[in-house]
Structures are given as C-alpha cells and as structure tokens.
Records
---
Amino acid sequence: MDDLDRPAAALRALPPSCGPVRLVAVDGHAGSGKSTFAGRLAVALGGAPVVHLDDIATHEELFAWTDRLREQVLEPLGRGEVARVHPYDWNLRRFGPPRPVPPAPVVLVEGVGAGRRALRPHLARLLWMERGAEESWARGRHRDGPAQSAFWDGWTAAETAHFAADPSRPFADALVRECAVGYEWLPGPAATAVANQAITESDRLSHPY
C-alpha cells in the first residue's frame, strides 16, 4: 500500500524533536531505496527538506561525519535557524557551496547511519528501509556499474563494521518495505517494544505510528 499521505500527516502531528523541527531519519543499507522513498515522502509532506548524508560524508569519512552534521544541520535547526549544508562532490573530492535547509515542520535525513546513536536523541521518528544487505548492495552495484566496483568493496566492509558497532534497525519506529507498487509499512522494533503504541493489526500497512 502506498498511502504516504497518512503517515505524512502522522509525522506532522508529532512533537518537535530538534528545536521547532520534527527530524525524521530514513536509514537502511546502501542500495535499499532510501533516497527514492525519502523523495516521495518529502512530496507527501508538502515539499519537506531532505538532508542527504551523501552530501555530508566523504571518501575518507564514510561514517565519521557526526560532528559535521551536528555543526551544519542539528545546531542551527535546533535554534530555529536555516541550516547550511556544504555538499561533498564525490567526483571532485571537495565540498561545494552551501545549500540552505530551512527549519520546516518536518525535515528528513536520509542515508546509511541516519539512525545512529548520536542522532537518535534529535529524532522525532526513525524509519528503516526493510531490505537485506546483500540484496541492497547488489542493487547499488548494478546502479553504479563496474567502474565503482572497488568503491563498493570498501563500502560494504565499512557499512558492515558501522552497523555492527552502532546498529539502527533495533531502534526503528517503523519498517518500510518497497513493493511492486508503493510501500508496506510495519511497526519497527522500537514501536513493538513499547506498550500502548497506537498500532493495530488492521493498521499495519499504513500506520507505523
């Protein structure tokens, strides 16, 4: 079921988590479909800003970008100010000019590690793309082609190490599974571990909250 209007409305109704902003993370393995899903959810949210972690990470800092995200995004949004991300150019290997991220009611952060330990206190919700690592990586390799094979070899090792040390899925509020048409929403481990969650069997496809 691809009913993004209902979960989008539920996200807008949440209490702010980072200053006036409801910060929502979309995490999952590389190649799992995070960027596409975040784009569609942003549209359902009326044009919500999306922070892509590919703009924050670098070749040398695939996962060591927490301080940069805090300085460029979390701290200004927490003050109700416009954040400014300097997107990393993966071809030129340098940061580009700043791109504004306004303190909208909902701001999405998508990328591998978006639900990491250091970010979770700032999140209103953590969504996890429910696709296995091997399948996700195969999709990513196919998308990027043979020229990126060496990069993917290094990436999969780094991603495996990251999630072993700092897993996101156990803390997800909702699991999002891409279907042939649309998305299936299921309660995540964090939701099912807490009593009195507003989730019933009849709501499982459309109400992760």
---
Amino acid sequence: MDDLPHDAAARRPRSRHIYLLPNLLTTANMFAGFYAILAAANGRFEAACIAVLVAGLFDGVDGRVARMTGTTSEFGVQYDSLSDLISFGMAPALVMFHWALVQFTLDGGTLAKVGWAAAFLYVACAALRLARFNVSAGSADKRWFIGLASPASAGAMISVVWCLTSLGYTGDEMRWVALAVTVACALLMVSRIRFFSFKAWPGDRVPFWFMLLVVAVLVALLIDAAKVVFVVAMAYVLSGPALWLWQRRRPATPPGAGAP
C-alpha cells in the first residue's frame, strides 16, 4: 500500500514512540538518583545505595537502546548528562554526606565544614568530568576512560556505605574513611589516569574468560551483594592508579634498541 517513492519513504520521520524510549530510560535513571537522595535523607542507606546501582543499570541501557533503534540525538546526549549529574554526582555525594560526612559537625570549629565541603567537591568534580567527556567524546580512544567515569565513581562511593553498614559500622565511626573515599573519588574523576572502558576489546569480541567472570560475579551477588559490589568497585577504581604506577616504573626503551 505504500506508493511513495523510495526516497520519500526514506525521509519519513521515525516513530515518536521509538524516540521516546531511550529518553524514558534516561528519566528512570534520574528518578532512581532522586529516590536515592530522598532515601538517604531519611536514613534508609541500603535502599539509597541500591537505587544508585539501579540508576547505573538504566544509564548503561539508554544509550545502547538509542543506538540500536537509530534514535540518537543531541537532545538525548545532553539530557543523559544532566541525569548523570543527579544520579552519579548529587546522589552519591548526599548519600555519603547523610551517612558519615555530616558527623563532622560533632567535632565543631573548622571540621564542622569539612563534611559538606567534601560533598560539594565531589559534585563539582562529577560535573567537570561529565563536561570534559562530552567535549572529547568524538576524539577519545573508546578503549579507555580518561579519569574515573562518574557511574564507576558513584558505585565506589555507595559500595563503601553499603558494605560498612552491612558490617555494623556507623557513619560516625567511619567519617574519616568516608572523607578519604569522597575526596579520592572526586579527584580521580578529574585526573588524567586511564581506566579500561570495556567498550572495545581487541578484535571487537569479548573473551570467553570475561563471560565466565561475569557469571561468577552474578552468582556471588546472590550470596552477599554488599560485599561483592564493594570488592568489584574497589578493584576497578584501583586498577587505574595501579596501571599508571606500573607504566611509570617500567623502564623506557632506549633509542634505537629496536633497530636491527
């Protein structure tokens, strides 16, 4: 029944429902981050941590759905960045603040300002990280993130809260640990340290051992999610500085050493 010329049919706009789908997923990402903030303000830290993880899942899906359906747009890119700032900037900072950093007010004086200053530093660094990623996305090596990605940084932040809470520690006891983690994650986001992105394997194929590792992690999550998330998050966060140190310690190849 389609009697339009081929070129006219090709120019027909895509269904608005298809364009709506990735933006709905981005909205779900933002809603999860917003819920995490509310949960943390009410002292429900486990629910807040899980909400940030859910936001990460939606963040990983929306872009792929947009590419699969051919509905990528500049609007979607900017909307995703704004959602990420809430879910992976504001949410983890406020979860950490309500859990531990606010306890610095008990120390009085200058230390009373340390908690909110560290939380703001994290939010500011997350915004800078997202802005730098947006302007360099077209020219960056897809195998690496320059600086710790904001979702991974958020995962590290909430993994500390979730794991230590599950072990019976309170934010008051762990406030100095929380301060160190918050500042470290903030600075890693704006650093020039490279982190593996998992976006481009050699030969564009995922190795079999990686699939086995994913299955093992999923099984472990069913046993003790809080500790597994903590171990995975810390392993990834430390992988960047470890690679950087290894490259700096590796002796440089003398000039002409490779010549016959």
---
Amino acid sequence: MKKILVTGANGQLGKSLQALAPQYGQYEFLFADRSVLDIADQDAVNRYFAEHQPAACINCAAYTAVDKAEADEDNAFTQNFLAVMYLAEASLQHNTQLVHISTDYVFDGYSNRPYRETDETGPRTIYGSSKLKGEAAATDVNPKSIVVRTSTGIR
C-alpha cells in the first residue's frame, strides 16, 4: 500500500485532507504535525523519510501568519523556505513525489484577472517572498516537485 505523508496535519488544509482520507483506502496516510515531524529539522526529515518511505508527500505545513511575518522574517523563511528545501532533498533521495502547497501571495496582487502559473511573480510581503523562495527550493532541488498555488480569495 502506497504511503502518503501529509505535513502540517493540524492546519486548515491538513485537517481537510484528514477528513477526505477515508475515501482513499488504497493509500496509507501518514498525518504529521510538528510534534510528529518538525520539517525545519533536516535530520528529522531525513530520518522520517528513511523510516517510512512515503511514495508522496503533500506539504501543507507553512508559516501562515501573513501580517506577523513582517516582524518574524527568520521564522517565516525557516518554515516556508528551508523546511521546503529539506523536504525536496529527502523526496529526491527517496523517490518521493513532493506536492508543495503555496499561495497567490507570490504575486503582487494588482491583477484584475486570475493569475496564471506563467505570470510574473512579485511578492510585496515577507510571507509572499518566503513562499516564493520555498517554491523555487522545491522545484530546483527536485524538478519532479509539483507546486500548487492556492488563494483564499480575500486580499
């Protein structure tokens, strides 16, 4: 049975995936919050991947306090960039499909139409900048990574 690791399991998206998981009994879901797997700890990430050998990892973990990130830049970049890089490295080493969840905050917010993945980025916040750097880490380290940009629709 293929294992799917879901990081950030106790966040909004992680909880939604937990609710949907029973519909996909052909997979074994490994729901990990920070108490189970601190993705900002490179050694912990490597140990977890080596022990559990997930076929896929859906990274729902993130520093999501958009306004607070302006004064907490180090933590925003640790969670949204470094931790993603560690997941990308481990996923590459263990042949794990990495799906990284990002945000429309990587754009400048001035478009009068929905953004396309090919549109030029230009984050105006620390949060957006940290998420954009995380996207780059995911795809630069492991070119097979998939980045999904979401939006709350509220800006």
---
Amino acid sequence: MFRNRGRKSAGILVLIMMLSTVLAACGGGDKKTEGENGASTALSGTIEIDGSSTVHPMTEAIAEEFGAENKDVRVPIGTGGTGAGFKRFLNGEIAITNASRPIKDKEAAEAKEKGIEYHEVTVAYDGLAVVVNPENDFIDKLTIDELKKIYEPDSKVKTWADVREGWPAEEIKIYSPGTDHGTFDYFTEVINGEAQVSRNDSQITFSADTNAIVQGVAGDKQSIGYFGFSFYEENKDKLKLIPIDNGTATVTASAETIKDNSYAPLSRPLYIYVSDKELERPEVKAFMDFYLSNAGALASEVGFVALPDEEYQKEKDKLAQ
C-alpha cells in the first residue's frame, strides 16, 4: 500500500515501526536477488533517470516507494525535458528516460546507428491543460482555431480582441513550455499542425520549468499558458482552466475526459524508455517490474489517468520477453 504523502498520522507511524521490527526479526528487509552459486544478495546500485518534467512526478513517486524497499538503490531523476532526456539516453548516460511523446524517427535512427536497443513503455494517460489567470472573467472557452491564432508562427494576435471580437483590447502575455519539452512537441503538432512550429516573438515566454509557467500565469491577469494536466491539479487554486471546443463538443480536461479521449486532441499517453542493456542489471529490472506493478494505483495520486490493469500486464509481458 502506498504511503499517504505528507498526511501520515502518529498512530500509523507507530504501527509501521512495529511491523518493520517484526519483519526484520523474521528476516525481512531489502529485496533480494539470486547471485552466483545461488547466494541471496540485496539490490544495490544507481538507476539514473532524466527527461520529461510532466512524467517526473509519477516516476519520482514510484522511485520513492521502490527506495523504501530497496535502500541500497539510488534513483536520481532529472527534469531536463523529453528532448534532453532522449539525448542523454542515446549517449548512454542514463538507464531510463521519461517521455511525454513517442521517440522521434531521427532519435530512433540514432539509437539504431549506435546499437542501442530499448523498450517503449506506456505508463499513464495525460491531458494538456490550457489555463489563464483566475481574474480573467471573459473567456468561457477557446476553440482549436483560436489556440492556433495565438500560438502559430507569425501570429498577428497581440491582444485578446485579436482572438475574438468583443474581448478586451488588452495585450496578451503568452507562456509555453520550452522547445525541449515533449509537451511543446505535442501541443504544436496538434494545434499548429507540425511539431516544434510556434510563434517566437516578444509576447511569448518559453520556459523549461513548468512551475515558472504556473507562476507567470498566476501573476498576470492577461496571460495564457499550457502544460500537463497534473500541474493544473497541483495549482488549481492559482489558475483558471479553460474548456476546449474541438469542433465536436466543448470539453473540460478531467480524469474522465482524458481517459475516454473525449478531450481530444489535447489528451495523450505518457511513456518511459528503458535500455535493454540497462535492463540486464537486476536493480533496473526490479525497478521496472515495480513501476508497472504499481503505476495503476499511483497514477491518480499524481494527477494522471491509469491504464487498464490488463495494459500494465501487457507492458510487463513485453519486458519479460
């Protein structure tokens, strides 16, 4: 059972300590693997992870739980963005990379050229939240075309009145994830028609730190931004979530609309990639098995939507093969 982060009662702690003492007396402790000559050895080592800041909260939570059971295994996790994560992964610097988009053709070609074999593992579903400042009282929804008008290359939009007639002629402050982010790739592809294609002028601020976008939108009445739904869930008291008219219906991002894909086109799967070579290390293999055994229970805790149980089993079966 996962720990209730930040809300453990004293009674539960005492019970856990008592149980831990009993388990230790009975030979409990860190997970063991079979070493040479059948000897039982505790897992140890370092599993370095980098990549998507969107996927980071889930992988970090998994690593925390895994570390509680395997105290001699270190799992440092960076948040350099999906693109930066793939660069490190393809250079053999990390065992696992978090990704909020699938690996690109050119990245896959580089992996093949370098002889790097890997597994793509789907771990959850996520949606992109489009947010404005809570004091914005005139936006009830945005269409896909209006989002494109705001974010497309060479956009002529300077004020809200340029987006929709009748809105105030106040200059918009626009925020976007940085160009290394899988979130940026995904948004620009589904909204502007091509990944990495975006306006790039004085009105838009790109940031590798999603929390900086949260603070920017929260601090400016005329601002707009987007990022993974989990970041909105963590900061909903500071932001206003905007429903999106996708041409068929006007839908608000939620766990339900992301899971049933009615929030299309701004819903997506999330991934981790693991190197086959690294997977031969017992601590990496154990971590991946732990990840897929517990991702379903943990996804909603960090603001994502879990896959069906059978899908996690399929992912485990793929790794076993």
